[in-house]
Amino acid sequence: MRRRKKLGNMIREQYLQKLDETHDNVLVAESGLFIPPEVLFIGATPDGFVNCDCCGRGIIEMKAPQNQNLDENFIPMKHLFQIQLFCVGLVKAKYCDYIAFHPNGTTIKRVFPDVRLQEFIIDKDEVFFRRVIISELLSRYFSSLRSLHTNSGTSDEDDENLYCFCQKPWEDPMVRCVGEDCTLEWFHARCFHLKTVPKRMWYCIECKQRQ
Q: Does residue 208 register a pLDDT over 50?
């Protein structure tokens, strides 16, 4: 950890020296965690902020690519996605300076926002959050599926009497999903932290997404 922090400080100093040569009033500061109110299921932690009179406010992202044989101007796809979404997109910066540490020195490549790519990634992340994360948080759906697959004593007849995302037997109170294409129909109220059965029409998570 100390070595990594020391390397980060060294790269930041080299970056600041390079910017001072061609930019006016350069300021580099550390950053924290950002969770934008419009996208609460994603957070951003850039490696720092940068600001100058000529370019305005941006962020920096420092990496040490595992494959040191790559072209120094090449940005790995996973890093590009991270820059566009977690840094430029969520923090609303004008640009991101991608700082890569190589044996021959440090390279800097400026990346500007790509709105279409940002929207594509956010849409995919939201689907994953709603279908996977929420289901697991509310009812341990995927953990239950894993335990079912590893339980060799479960028979097909037993499976017919399992309900809800958690795939466990009937346990009052139960709530019924009114979605026409609902694959489960009946759910445990406790799995959704419901103290009473809703009097209005109720939809499960998956059916709400289809509306």
A: yes
Mean pLDDT value across residues 48-68: 84
CA 98 to chain centre: 20
Q: Which amino acid is it at 18?
A: K
Say if CB 95 and CB 104 are below 8 A apart: no
The per-residue pLDDT for range 18-36, each reduced to its tens digit, is 888 889 999 988 888 888 8
What's the distance, CA 206 to chain centroid? 20
Q: Give the torsion sign (CA, 116, 121, 124, 125).
A: negative
Q: How many CB atoms lie within 10 A of CB 12?
A: 19
